[in-house]
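Why predict the complex rather than its parts? Because the way molecules touch one another can change local conformation, and only a joint prediction can capture that. The input here totals 458 residues.
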Amino acid sequence: MKSSKIVYVCSECGYQTSKWMGKCPQCGAWNSFEEEEYHEAPKSISAKKKSLLEGEEKAEKIGDFSLSDYVRHSTGISEFDRVLGGGIVNGSVILLAGEPGIGKSTLLLQLCGQIGDDCKILYVSGEESKTQLKMRAKRLDVNPSELYILTAADVDVILKEYDRIKPDIMIVDSIQTIYSDSSASSSGSITQVRECSSLFIEKAKTDGAAIIIVGHVNKEGGIAGPKVLEHMVDAVIYFEGDRRQPHRIVRAIKNRFGSTNEIGVFEMCETGLEEVANPSAMLLEGRPKGVSGSCAVCVMEGSRPIIAEIQALVTPTAFPSPRRTSNGIDYNRMCLLLAVLEKRLGLKFSSCDVYLNVIGGLRLDEPAVDAATCLALISSIRDIPVPDDLIAFGEIGLSGEFRSVSSIDQRVNEAFRLGFTKIAMPKRSVPKNAGSLPGIDIVPLSGIFDALTLFSKK
Ligand SMILES: Nc1ncnc2c1ncn2[C@@H]1O[C@H](COP(=O)(O)OP(=O)(O)OP(=O)(O)O)[C@@H](O)[C@H]1O
Ligand SMILES: [Mg+2]
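Output of the joint prediction:
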């Protein structure tokens, strides 16, 4: 008779134990154990099959084999292609993760609509019925001839159908709903997610089909399930955005076949996700004029310059520990910049609440945003607007000095294209032909003191 019992599984490496532990003895991760119920010892996938790359055990010279089997399918959605590094590679496994309702299934169904006439696609849905999928396909006006829909959650059934249909691309929506009988823990558990994913990855590597796995994210924003899943797949793509806002950003966190710097921008409409070819214009839409606490910045997202707006609100507080909130900019970076401004310019942020926000749900990680962040903060605390036609970029050091940034030409061109005529940048980054650029006023900044002059200049 099977007896149910509780095991604790490390979400980082999958190590199992009968007692909860603070530190995983296998991978050393802290606080990574999660409780799971199971009835019998699950068979380890790795024990069933020693290697995913079976048949390739013989060492060969790199020049002796060709790339003839390497095929990249364009998805027909250029913003998604950009993130994938040009398209979906056969035999690769892509993990697409995002919050509930962000539009993962919509994007994948639209992808089917674009390439489903040329490629055979098997869309496996573990969470929606065929009618629901058909309704969505009708709304999105998608009816490809080679799209097969399977509503199943048992991994054996899915793999059987896979063998029957032999698709070029299989979509699994979502991995948290799929289960394998070899493990008796409930679907969505770490063990189930790991086992089912290993079976799909093994299929992709041996058969050459590309597999897109949809993953849910947990409360902390990470992919629900074992961390090891992210190591196993070839690409991890995050679908981000605020559900209340129409725009969505697709970002590669890991990609074995392309750069991880690129982002794809979409807008959620009634008819599905529309590509946004000109994200800067969209992000600047509705920007108020002559208001303090706002500054535009040009960031490089991969090969593409994007103009974003940083907003700051600084208000006096009576409480001894003031509030600090940051949306879209690293919290620690904001604290560092506040300390620099306080020390070097004597601005009293320590008696004020500070709220920082990047419009459009964008996350800016580049140090080049420092200049615009500081200008927005200074503008808000002094209640003087930054000139509307001014854009700033540059990294700020702890001594308040401006450090040079890369890709100046692209940033300047994009800023000018969107109507910014005054460009504040680190002195060292100023291009040699700065004086001859028609209609552009380049303001060189060497230290944070120079930033103050921007407010008085008309
Ligand atoms: N009729 C509609 N008109 C406009 N937008 C819609 C309509 N129906 C759904 N949407 C949009 O699509 C989103 C849901 O998309 P989708 O089902 O692809 O998300 P998902 O990421 O797959 O969600 P889940 O995690 O629940 O599977 C909704 O949040 C909404 O923004
Ligand atoms: Mg979905």
